[in-house]
Specification:
Largest sheet: none
Radius of gyration: 24 Å
Number of helices: 15
Mean pLDDT: 85
Low-confidence stretches: none
Helix content: over 70%
Order of helices and strands: HHHHHHHHHHHHHHH
Amino acid sequence: MNKGSDLAKKFIVRIKTFFDSIKKRIISRVSTDPILKGVVVISSGTAIAQVLGIILTPIITRLYPPAIYGTLAVFGSLLAILIVGGSLKYENAIPIPERDNDAEYLLILCFFIVCTLSIILFLILFLWGSYLAGIFHFEFIAPYYWLFCIGFFGSCTYQILLYWTIRSKDYIVITHTKISQSISGSVSKIIFGIFSFGSFGLICGDIIGRMVGIGTLGKKVLPKIRLTIKDLDFNKLRSVAKRYKKFPTYSLPSGIINEIALQAPTLLLSVLFGFQIAGLFSLSYSMLVLPVSLVSQSIGQVYFGESSELFRKKSDKILPLYLKTTKELFMLGAPLILFAAIVFPILFPLIFGSAWKDAAMFSLPLSILVISNFIVSSTDRLELFGFNHWVLAWNICRTILVLGGFLLAFQFKLSPVATILLYSLIMTIMYGICFILNVKAIKLSIAKNKE
């Protein structure tokens, strides 16, 4: 008996020693690799924020019915499309300049653009908001025009400050703000829900969550650019805008087209079937995507690091790495996502409340899309191989096909489930084409290196 006990203790000690050695290797690697350290810190913050959001969602769904939740989904989709062009993509250039002074001018340029566009947005909504809302059946937005402008300005401001913080490599601060956004946004929605504020409360909570962190990031930025603002050289401001004009010229249209394709289902479902269906779809999609998104991002970051190194070395091992990674993603993702989609009809009423039982009807049609997105998006690196024009063309085709699919659904009066199935099939086909394009790009890159 003692002999068996000793063997068990030795086995436990060996296991503990093995995991301790792995832990030490990981810590050593992370501490010596600044890029990996940044990835780990930001990913951990994103993971915590997502987990907190998932934990608090069942409380929110019991305070707000699907129709009210759908108004937030529509509001968020419209805002997401506008935010893409909030600073004409100049914020993406902030980490690039070698000199901080040039980056500060880019920062000031971004704020100037955001302030200008916020004023223009307010005037458009004030003068023609009711007319535009009537066309797209978004009349619920009418009382909340001013919230829309605040959400736009706040989200864009946070985004600009975020890129400056990335330039400064202050990843811990980014992590803290992401967690704070998740907690404050969810808690605000719960408080407003308890006092029955309806759509207004849900939208206010969302905006609060988006804007939390601006003060934290701003404290580190404003003291540095105070002198630059005081002695602002408008000629240099124009020069900086011209130097980085490729961002509004190429990245802006591609980003807007991409965002339209992503937000089209929520917007068009609300037009075709009402806010309740949009709310049910939004919850079902988020619960399928959120749990796998962190894994997808982490694998994508690792793949990007490995493929970038092979690309610099002009190695022909990029294609085997790509095919192996996509295969492993399929073997990992497909069973988990399909299992989740199958059990959702049982879990949704228990977790989110009986009002949300119909949200599970979208899980199986959406699982096809989520699997293909999980596999292909994680390893899509066409820009790495210099095929940016392929990305733009793919985004244009995807958006046209998605909009065309919803037009067919309207013409043939398809049910909500059939409409989402059609959408999922179109997106899956497009991700399949994206996979083929990546294989083609890698082969052309290898052939070019051999020449």
